[in-house]
Each structure stands twice: as structure tokens, then as C-alpha cells.
Amino acid sequence: MFSAPYSALWSQSTAIQQKAIILKRMIELNHFSPRPVDDSFSIVMFNKMIRTTDPGGRLFTEADFKALSVYRTELDDELQGKAGHF
């Protein structure tokens, strides 16, 4: 009964994961200023996302930011196809 929606979700997840892995390799190999995709990269990207999403600091409360901060080192893991907090 639930297997069809689950298998569709699984195949979509796998396709997204494969695209993330390809994106990671492209960043590492083809960027004009290549850098390793690691926790440092994840933190920089997380901070840029927060600044872009909430430039005036009015959208996220301190509690929201603290709750989101647990994910700040996870982007590189997701791009490598590792299961993280997401």
C-alpha cells in the first residue's frame, strides 16, 4: 500500500544525492578558485545563506539561529552523499 510512494521517494532521493555528488566534484575541480568541500566550506556557505535570507536580522530569532546552526557543518556531508541531519 505504501511501497509505491516510498519507492518513488527513494528514487527521487537517490537522484538528488547523485546530483549533489556531481556538484561537489564540479566545485572542487572546476571552480575558478577551487577549495576543498569540507566543514569549513559548509560553515561559510551556511553563513552566506543566513545573511542572504535574513540580511537585516529580522527573520530568524536567536533561538531559530541556534536551532539551524546544528546543520552548519552538514552541507559537505550531504554533497558527499553521506546521511546527515537532513
Structure description:
The protein is an all-alpha fold. The protein has one domain. It is built from four helices and no strands. The chain has helices at 3-30, 39-53, 62-69, 75-79. The protein is globular, with a radius of gyration of 16 Å.
Q: Strand pairing plus helix content: what structural class?
A: mainly alpha
Low-confidence stretches: none
Number of strands: 0
Rg is 16 Å
Task: Note the main sheet.
Answer: none
Mean of all residue-level pLDDT scores: 79
Roughly what percent helix? 55-70%
Order of helices and strands: HHHH
End-to-end Cα distance, whole Å, is: 26 Å
Coarse shape: globular
As a percent range, the share of strand residues is under 5%
Total helices: the number is 4
Q: Please, how many domains?
A: 1
Which descriptors apply to this entry?
single chain, 86 residues, mainly alpha, 0% strand
Describe, in short, the structure shown.
The chain has 86 residues and is mostly helical.
Task: Set down the secondary structure blueprint.
Blueprint: H1 3-30, H2 39-53, H3 62-69, H4 75-79
